[in-house]
Design brief:
This is DUF4023 domain-containing protein. The chain is mainly alpha-helical. Helices cover about 60% and strands about 0% of the residues.
């Protein structure tokens, strides 16, 4: 039972990370992408 709980927690963490990365990289909406620093 413990194992299943750990697995679910891990899965949720990974989903959260994936969601944040998606926001940072602006997949699907390039205007939300963080601007690149250009000198």
């Amino acid at each position: 039972m413990d194992n299943t709980h750990e697995y679910v927690e891990k899965l949720h963490k990974n989903q959260k990370k994936a969601e944040q990365n998606k926001k940072r990289q602006g997949n699907g909406s390039p205007d939300e992408k963080l601007p690149n620093n250009r000198h």
